[in-house]
Amino acid sequence: MGKTLLFDAGNTNTKLCLADDQGLNECYTLPTRPANTDDDWGLKIESILLREGVEPTDIEACVISSVVPPLDPLIQSMAARFLECECLFAGRDLTLDIDNEYVHPEQVGADVLVGCYSARMTYDEKNLIVVDFGTATTCACIQGNAFKGGLICPGLLSSASALASGTAKLPKVDLTVASPTLHWGQSTAECLNQGFVFGFASMIDGLVEKLSAQLKNPFVVATGGLAPTIAQLSERINELRPDLVMEGLWMAYYNR
């Protein structure tokens, strides 16, 4: 089999990953700008393929999880012109073997379902919670083979951006973890850092604790770009899988 190009198209960034029948290869992150043209996407992807020593004709399919509808036709047009391959969208062209019990199933983002599918295929525990640290912070609850529902909370970066835009004197928030122990800040920058990184970790721990009343002993998986930051401070996150959506796209494509 040839190589596939996986897309995790989110509201802030689009993550791309080359994959083959052996698994995932190198990943890249580009800003999501639906106003860009298909040529813009094609030229950027050509540069990535050149860096990886991969010919455009080696790509047999683009496999996509997208929550940005205006981006979808651009990716399709790019794939046809630059790669001459088909596009398969998760949940539409590519079946995910997980039951969606949402009241309005069409409202569930493809990334949520792909993450749930990936977690279900990876872990044996009956009850799972997938926490995705993206533009929003989401908690997806899985029981057996069913996505039961979840929570949508503010995202780390979007919260920091909102705070910066609404205040005149607060500096940009540093989201690095200097110490695993919470302490009160002695400068504004330090106060922001401690409040954000420990605050979000405590938010997840508290939510998992409350969700456990409905979902007994859940195994909690963290994914998303900022997952490594918060996972090291959380007492309830069991495993870190930053590329869970990519893994799910790969599984769905190669197991179809």
From TrEMBL:
Cellular compartments annotated: Cytoplasm
Residues binding K(+): D132
Residues passing through the membrane, by range: none
Obligatory cofactor(s): NH4(+); K(+)
Keyword RNA-binding: no
GO MF term set: ATP binding; metal ion binding; pantothenate kinase activity
Pathway, per record: Cofactor biosynthesis; coenzyme A biosynthesis; CoA from (R)-pantothenate: step 1/5
Protein's name according to its UniProt entry: Type III pantothenate kinase
Native source organism of the sequence: Pseudodesulfovibrio hydrargyri
Lineage start: Bacteria, Pseudomonadati, Thermodesulfobacteriota, Desulfovibrionia, Desulfovibrionales
